[in-house]
Amino acid sequence: MKRQLSLPVSTMSQCAPDDMKFRSSMTLFEHAAATSALLFATALNELCAGKRGEQTLALLVGDHGISSRGH
Question: What is the tens place of the pLDDT at every residue in 36-66?
């Protein structure tokens, strides 16, 4: 069963604080959620033009030694 987001088909702006929070949260959840990572990846792909939160990724893969999942 394929899950679909029931949100308007438009991408978020890059400058609104709420949009940046959403992108950052989805990036974090995508990396933290073992079984539902695809749901968060879909949100990022459809609503954020596939862009992950760069600062969040830097924190995840930076000095903490957490590996990236190829994003």
Answer: 999 999 999 999 999 999 999 999 887 655 5
